[in-house]
Specification:
This protein has 249 residues and is α+β, with helices and mostly antiparallel strands. The chain contains 5 helices and 12 strands. Bound molecules: biotin.
Length: 249
């Protein structure tokens, strides 16, 4: 199948992980741009070394493409991809009013329905794989955070087509980093908890402060009570606003 943007789709009934397939293809010299889409994954991978439950009915897709910049540019792609998912749901289901949780989770009413896993899968040229898992027909059980799904009446192919169009537009806006200012502004307008209390957890370390925005490399800027700004590059963040919302819903 070829999408309206001209991007080909390689479809798998069942695969270990579309991100792993992207890496294997990159190892053979593949540059894309192309989509790898599976009905089911047996080894779906999530952030922070977690697994991603991948039963049929949801979207499991990876976009593989090359950039002229070095691999350091890839850290900004998280925000580009989260915006594309946000655009997609806003177009297909505007009443759901999604928000983005740093760095790239997309939530509805405080519950996650989409995860994004961008990885550098090749060098010279830099190849990036953006893995997207979108809960459409079902939300997995037993996750360490609340989850939801968009609704089984939405076709997986419809979500993929819309996501492809939006990702293409958002990647053009980003322009390999030259447009990151616009990406950052749009991301911030849709972000959860900006300007409010945030706690970042990385291993045993917990820091609380105010979420002040995004650094140029995509780090979350946390300002402590004494005014010290700490860039958070990885780990989990939780927002007082979100916890309050969860308790009252
Ligand atoms: C997260 O934990 O938030 C990221 C989840 C990313 C899941 C997607 S599904 C398609 C692609 N293949 C994988 O193995 N993971 C990503």
């Amino acid at each position: 199948m070829i999408l309206a943007t001209g991007h080909p789709v390689r479809h798998f009934d069942r695969i270990d992980s579309t991100n792993l397939e992207a890496r294997r293809l990159a190892d053979t010299g593949e540059c894309g741009p192309l989509w790898l889409v599976a009905d089911e994954q047996t080894l779906g991978r999530g952030r922070l070394g977690r697994s991603w439950v991948s039963e049929p009915g949801n979207l499991y897709a990876t976009f593989l493409f090359a950039i002229a910049q070095g691999p350091q540019a890839a850290s900004q792609v998280s925000f580009v991809a989260a915006l594309a998912v946000h655009d997609t749901v806003t177009k297909l289901r505007p009443e759901l009013a999604p928000r983005i949780k740093w760095p790239n989770d997309v939530l509805i009413g405080g519950a996650k329905f989409c995860g994004v896993l961008p990885e550098v899968v090749g060098e010279n040229p830099t190849r990036i794989a953006i893995g997207c898992g979108v809960n459409i027909a079902h939300a997995p059980e037993g996750t360490p955070y609340p989850v939801t799904a968009l609704g089984a009446d939405l076709a997986v192919a419809t979500v993929l087509k819309e996501l492809d169009a939006n990702l293409t537009r958002r990647l053009a806006q980003w322009d390999e980093g030259r447009g990151f200012g616009a990406t950052r502004t749009d991301w911030a307008a849709r972000a959860l908890g900006l300007g409010s209390a945030v706690t970042a957890t990385s291993g045993a370390r917990k820091i609380t402060g105010t979420f002040e925005g995004l650094a140029a490399d995509g780090a979350l800027l946390l300002e402590e009570a004494d005014g010290t700004r700490i860039p958070i590059h990885s780990g989990e963040v939780s927002f007082a606003e979100l916890e309050r919302q969860r308790r009252t819903s």
